[in-house]
Specification:
Elements lengths: L1 H15 L5 H15 L4 E2 L2 E2 L2 H19 L7 H16 L4 H18 L12 H11 L1 H4 L23 H6 L2 H10 L14 H12 L5 H18 L1
Antiparallel strand pairs: 1-2
Helix pairs in contact: 2-3, 2-5, 2-9, 3-4, 4-5, 6-10, 9-10
The chain binds heme C (HEC).
């Protein structure tokens, strides 16, 4: 039963991928604020005005979108948390508080509206690598360091996928949804025209550029230990 439900969720997720619903848009913005805020504000001071303007815009949009969500049991807490997030960003609060609020909001949205956050099939990393080489390196660079030939002309600059701090903040689903919807007001456009599998392959490919081989090995051990414990 659970499996059938999951499959249905994936199918719904795939069908909806072309046009972002308000819920998907909200989820993407929440992920985005969680990852980008530490680059905008540090120690109560704005360190990057362009980034901070984006954070203000996004957190206000998140609050507006929360007001318009379908009425469910989950909505009141989502509205309160979205309002809290907006006031934290406006007050230039500590990045820890902001990422706590985005983390909570993310979870409330996933649970409250049954959002699919995993791919339907195991992503093909080789395919992701090939697509990346064809379509992404002009900005993100051959090694994904954010230093492609166009990078110096862009503000904000293309993301450096090998940055470990950023890697620790984000989720694979967050990468997938940025690839799907793009980021308004930046050179990062939507790749919704690519098939769903390709967007997941790209998300998994760029998502594994930061950790070292040792980190990947250790992560795998944790995962294996977890699945044995579940059996
Ligand atoms: C024309 C330049 C350009 C191209 C081509 C491009 N990007 Fe981007 N991308 C950007 C910029 C600029 C940003 C940063 C946006 C911001 O900071 O708000 C970005 C951000 C991203 C992010 C968000 C990363 C994070 O940590 O939040 C992802 C994921 C991404 N790009 C994936 C891709 C993939 C995959 C491709 C190829 C299919 C691609 N991009 C092609 C310019 C580009």
């Amino acid at each position: 039963m659970r499996k059938i439900l999951l499959v249905l969720l994936y199918l719904l997720g795939t069908a909806a991928a072309q046009a972002a619903t308000p819920l998907q848009r909200m989820q993407q913005l929440v992920d985005y604020v969680g990852v980008d805020y530490p680059g905008a504000v540090a120690g109560g001071e704005v360190v990057n005005p362009v980034e901070y303007a984006e954070m203000l815009d996004f957190s206000r949009t998140i609050q507006d979108l929360a007001e318009g969500l379908p009425v469910t049991e989950a909505r009141p807490e989502i509205r309160t948390t979205a309002a809290l997030l907006n006031s934290l960003v406006t007050a230039r609060s500590d990045a820890h508080q902001v990422s706590e609020a985005t983390g909570k909001l993310r979870q409330l949205l996933i649970n409250g509206y049954d959002l699919a956050v995993t791919p339907a099939r195991t992503p093909d990393l080789q395919r992701g690598k090939a697509l990346f080489a064809q379509q992404c390196t002009s900005c993100h660079g051959v090694e994904g360091k954010g230093n492609g030939p166009l990078a110096s002309t862009l503000e904000p600059a293309p993301t450096n996928f090998t940055d470990l701090d950023r890697y620790r903040q984000r989720t694979l689903h967050g990468l997938y949804s940025t690839i799907t919807h793009g980021v308004n007001g930046t050179a990062m456009k939507s790749y919704a025209k690519l098939p769903d599998d390709d967007r997941w392959a790209l998300a998994f490919y760029v998502g594994q550029l930061a950790p070292t081989d040792l980190m990947k090995f250790e992560g795998k051990q944790v995962l294996l230990a977890g699945s044995i414990a579940l059996d």
